[in-house]
Amino acid sequence: MGLWLPAIFLAGLLFSFLLAFHNPTPHHIEVAVAAPPATTAQLQSQLDTAVPGGFTLQPVDTAAEARSAVLNHDAVAAFVPAPHHPQLYGAKADGAAMESIIREVFTSAAQKPGATLAFHELVSTRPGDSLGISPLYLLMACTLPAYFLVVAMQRAVGFSRRAHVATMVGGGAVAALACYLTGAYGMDAIPQHPLALLYLFLLTQAVSLTSYGFVPFLGPFFPGAAVTLFVLLGVPSSGGTVPIDLLNGFFRFLHPVLPMGNAADALRLVDYFDGRQLGRPTAVLCAWIATGAALIVLGYLKQLRQLVREAQAGMTGYVPAPPPEDPTVELPEPVALPPHRHHFGEQLPILTGRVSGLAGEPLSATITVTDPHGRQLVRTHTDQNGEYAATGFHDGFAIVVAGAPGRQPAASRLLLSPATPVNQDFILTPAQQAVPGYTSSHRATMISHDRGAAGRTL
């Protein structure tokens, strides 16, 4: 079972990264051409012969319009043919590899004999990002912590769902701010613009909220879905390493859909093109965040309906869902805790209580917690004060049994939840003693002191 995630990484690296990057080829790169229609058509034919389907020419009236198309991000390059001094205009900000290929193709295919092609850089990259790929690493620095924070939240057994979400929002803000300050002020790799910080933050929330929303529906398989979407497919299709117009059709299709590609586009547009055409990246990132929020709500409703059904059905048919698995993080299991020694950073108890006799004296008792089918989850003993504590339980019903030598055992069926600790006290009567006012059905006396609506004796 634990080998499926390494298998996903192996397949992803072979058939995603390697497939995307091994042979970059131009695909319909838009180039503005300031030439008559006949000249443009002839040039299109020459380019189709050299690189079939590699370039799409956009005819414009003047050289100024051709340059404006590049500056406005309406075209990747511009070409102004002339008998002796043809002019080629590029934007390294669209990708150094892209510019290199355009210069090579136009030099060999569009330059006439005896003419010298002059190249002009219109939109250069930042001094701290000469190759134009630094933003990719900042985007990965936002994406991976956002995912691992979701995995860590599966261990935060004392947190409610609301606290989980608040932690992911706060953690995303910290990660985005750290990436922004490092990239903008430390390395001059991204613009010192508040919109850059905003889009880094939106990326963290798109990844973390959607990944967290997967958990109730995919269970132990949510890491595979999240890693595949946001890393194995997100990185190659982002255009951060190889410009998107040099990738094959599958990754070009994914680019405007996945969060990382849209965040990369947003940073590029803010930095080099005065924030033009930000509508699509903004809408897509917000759509991913809305999808994650909707999945979280639906997961809560799904869990609530399941618990209500099980409460109505008694003890039959309920098996707690297995925790999500991730090979990088050890997820919680039910364990006993000292009743009072809880240090900062340690797991907080979910189940606590005290075992005493009729006179209130503490008893040395054994506490056994099982699931509704009798599978033992944890077994512990009370301390000198008759108290016990345990944690690591997932949402669901459990049977808590207290037993002591010479005493009638007591049992209670509880709804345990990491979000709401439950206190369950037991009073154990002597094994052969009848208690006035008690019938045989009251031999096990339970006193439940719930600390929230989620914990109750049924």
From TrEMBL:
Family matches, as InterPro entries: CarboxyPept-like_regulatory, DUF3533
Keywords noted in UniProt: Membrane, Transmembrane, Transmembrane helix
Keyword Cytoplasm: no
KW Nucleotide-binding (keyword) present: no
SUPFAM superfamilies registered for this protein in UniProt: Carboxypeptidase regulatory domain-like
Upper taxonomic lineage: Bacteria, Bacillati, Actinomycetota, Actinomycetes, Streptosporangiales
Domain DUF3533 span(s) in chain numbering: 200-291
Protein name according to UniProt: DUF3533 domain-containing protein
Spans through the membrane: 136-153, 165-185, 197-218, 225-244, 282-301
Pfam families per UniProt: DUF3533 (PF12051)
